[in-house]
Amino acid sequence: MVEVNLWSGLRPLANGEEMVEVEADTVGGLLDALVEQHPGLQEAIDAGVSVAVDGRIIASALDEPIRPDSEVFLMQRLKGG
Q: pTM value?
């Protein structure tokens, strides 16, 4: 299981949880598992999120591996100019 820390703006979409656990071994698998467990996250993930794994922002590599002991944060992408 991977612990995923949710950015404050995403917590209401996951029943107010600050941290959730999912079974995943890649970034893509993590996003799929999050939506399966918390369907309310689908729209935010589709709009764009950033995933930080062990302090590195994973921009688009859905096949990036995640270990069970990885530190993972899910954040909404900031928009603006």
A: 0.91
